[in-house]
Design a protein that fits this description.
By secondary structure, the chain is an alpha/beta fold. The chain has helices spanning about 95-100, 130-140, 150-165, 185-190, 200-205, 210-215, 215-230, 245-250, 270-275, 295, 300-310, and strands at about 15-20, 30-35, 55-65, 65-70, 80-85, 105-110, 145-150, 170-175, 255-260, 280-285.
Length: about 325
């Protein structure tokens, strides 16, 4: 996929940019295309302790057809809603919660049906995840929201922006297969992961070799959250839309597409394929990160996310 020449500002450049975080000690983030480089000091990859959390209100939202656990830092800031992966829950964002709150955002996360502290409801009627999100947004009396969604959460964030476009200010999709059903995409994914891949441990599937080798404490904490995420039967909610390239191309909101360069689900080549159908999006890869870059390299991830949110405006 071609990128704009950063030295030719007269060539009608759009907002697309590519950031690649290198693993060299003392290296910065290198930008090509229309975006600006983000400075990084010290080693780009190093274990990061989980920081103290900002004060947050926890509650169960009584919603049509379900009861969902959520936490909310409150305040007058722009609401940012975090949508978790299929192996995690609303408890899986400890690196982002205090950083976003410190930056002035109202940070909210919730567990989908059947996930940690949320009721599963009727497994035969798993509901529509974007409607659950919409009902939660109405329950919290929110206007426009910024959505940050990782992995399977990205399916439902895309479905939400297609269903309720006026409620979304910006969209950050992190290491997500997106649920696209077009044959070319389905065929690529079939080549990427053999059938036995689904039988492998979640930490092998989702965390990079660098992380598993270099951060045993972080690995153990991630595994604990994974084990607690689905206490009973896994509920797979529906989407209102069949997700296709054409539907993706209709989304014009400020968008960030991000993955880890070691992601076995969404490697950079697949991210570029996605980005071809969202030409207005910011496109980012993080070196030595796998399918959970927000957990593996939170310092760099948070810098990228905060920079994106700062410049995101309504469509």
């Amino acid at each position: 996929m071609d990128h704009d020449n950063p030295h030719d500002r007269s060539a009608g450049m759009d907002r697309r940019w590519l950031l690649c975080a290198t693993a060299a000690v003392g290296a910065g983030l290198v930008a090509t295309g229309g975006g600006s480089a983000l400075a990084a000091s010290g080693p780009v990859w190093a274990p990061v302790p989980i920081p103290p959390q900002a004060p947050a209100h926890e509650d169960i939202a009584e919603l049509p057809g379900t009861r969902l656990w959520y936490w909310d830092t409150g305040g007058p800031g722009r609401p940012v809603i975090l949508l978790h992966a299929g192996t995690q829950s609303a408890a899986g964002w400890p690196y982002q919660q205090p950083v976003l709150a410190m930056a002035g955002y109202r940070v909210i996360a919730y567990s989908r049906r059947g996930y940690y502290k949320s009721d599963p409801g009727n497994p035969a009627d798993p509901g529509i995840a974007s409607d659950d999100l919409h009902n939660l947004i109405n329950h919290l009396k929110l206007d426009k929201v910024d959505l940050v969604a990782t992995a399977q959460g990205g399916f439902f964030a895309l479905d939400y922006v297609l269903s309720y476009p006026d409620k979304v200010r910006s969209l950050a999709i992190v290491a997500s297969l997106m649920g696209i059903t077009d044959p070319d995409y389905v065929e690529v994914n079939a080549r990427l992961r053999p059938k036995f891949f689904a039988t492998l441990p979640h930490d092998f599937q989702e965390l990079s070799p660098s992380y598993r080798a270099g951060n045993p404490a972080g690995l153990a904490a991630w595994q604990e959250l994974d084990h607690a995420a689905v206490p009973g039967t896994r509920i797979t909610p529906k989407t209102r839309h069949v997700l296709t390239w054409a539907k993706l191309e209709s989304i014009k909101h400020p968008t960030l597409l991000l993955t880890g360069e070691s992601d076995l689900y969404v490697p950079p080549s697949l991210l570029r394929m996605q980005a071809q159908h969202m030409p207005h999006a910011d496109v980012v890869t993080i070196a030595e990160a796998g399918h959970s870059p927000y957990w593996e390299q939170p310092t760099i991830f948070n810098e990228i996310l905060l920079a994106f949110l700062a410049r995101a405006i309504s469509p």
